[in-house]
Amino acid sequence: MSNGVPRFDDIIGRLWHRVEVPPLAHASELGIPLDLGTLTVLPGALTPGDPAPDFDVPSFDSGRIRLNDYRGKVLLPAFWGSDYDPTSRDLHDLKNVYERFRTDPHYAQLGLVLARNPLLARKAAERARVDWPQGLLEGQAVSTVYDIRTIPLYVLIGPQGQVLATGRSVSALAQAVEAALATVR
């Protein structure tokens, strides 16, 4: 970086994207460029004010969970793993936050589980007795764009789709939920 301006060889973000290219007869020999469309590069971990990366994942009830479906609401997605201990303090706190705000029409809460085995993920959610929608991140790039390195991870998203707060402890985010809801009521 020179004078605060990135140089062409500075790393300013990272992108993980799987691209499947159909066989093209002699395309490389002809010098034909491959159009990958628009690729979005996010600079590291999410911070307050960043736009929340979009997601569209399968839900446990055979539907879909899409970030865009929650526009206008304060959303608390909880990223967890199928080996998560349902007796943990965080889960207890998460249930308390859900019970506290579940009747507010401006609030929504999701569980987004990182699991290789959908059956184990469903069983873990059943054991935990969670009442909010659950989605499966198996094979999804969501964990990458949300920069999930350890679980659980909680990301508070505002009604306009911006990140309001992130954290590893839901009890610390409860006040942020309250403050966010005060701005939309």
Short descriptors:
185 residues; Glutaredoxin; two-stranded antiparallel ribbon; 5 helices; 19% strand; globular
Quick synopsis:
This protein has 185 residues and is of the alpha/beta class. Helix content is 25%, strand content 19%.
Structure characterization notes:
The protein has about 180 residues and is α/β, with parallel strands linked by helices. It has a single domain (about 45-185), classed as Glutaredoxin (3-Layer(aba) Sandwich), CATH 3.40.30. Helices cover about 25% and strands about 20% of the residues. It is built from five helices and seven strands. The protein has helices at about 25-30, 90-100, 120-130, 140-145, 170-185, and strands at about 55-60, 65, 75-80, 105-115, 135, 155, 165. The strands form two sheets. The chain has a five-stranded mixed β-sheet. The protein has a two-stranded antiparallel sheet with strand order 1-2. A hairpin with a 5-residue loop joins β6 (about 155) and β7 (about 165). It starts with about 25 loop residues before the first helix and ends with a helix. The mean pLDDT is about 80.
